Structure prediction request, 250 residues.
Amino acid sequence: MPDQRTILRITGEDRVDFLQGLLSNDMKKLADGLVYAALLSPQGKYLFDFFLFARDDAVFLDVKSDAAAALSARLNMYRLRADVAIEASDLLLSRGLGDAPEGAFCDPRDPALGWRTYRQQAGADAAIDWAALRVARMIPETGVELIPNETYILEMGFERLNGVDFRKGCYVGQEVTARMKHKTALKKGLAQVSIDGPVAPGAVISRDGKEVGRVHTVAGPRALAYLRFERAGAGMEAAGQTLHLEKLTP
Prediction:
């Protein structure tokens, strides 16, 4: 598995309305399958990202395990008098590429990321290089490119990844996110770069003596990086290696 996941179970009569008022995506989309979304701070910064699906009388939330306790606490902080209960479920994630098993969901971020299923057994094809796939498709990862209280989701391509809805109405952090969408041009964000030699994640990227950004996930000769767009271009270097700009977050 590329990481360990916890599947939370959210029940109660108010569960959908409760999530609708908090999350970046529209919970009406649960009727169509798996939904990718984020919970933001009131200042519009990323806190958590996860997948959601509806089954029977519950909404299930698939989150990275080391963020599950903090996410549960944050959701309970907003619960107040809503008829909502949040607990860990016994479901486990399986994911893969190619032909999907019965009951699988397509990954809503990008068709190239394959399918996800939620059952009592977990599994994944160990031959799949998920990091290389993420780099190729410019998919940010929890705790790597997506940094709590630092990241803005539009800088990480959440519109391209189907993780934000601009028509759903209010949610936590919505005002800042909408302003970034409609009133400003992105000055920083996720990029794909190629590298002439070995560079470790976290390396500072510079150009003409000025810091441009940092390297994040590295997969062979390519990497994901966080860049200042106006400084990015030919002549970028990191750890003594030349970097070439391939793609920017749309």
Remarks:
- The CA atoms of residues 79 and 193 lie 42 Å apart.
- The longest helix spans residues 65-79.
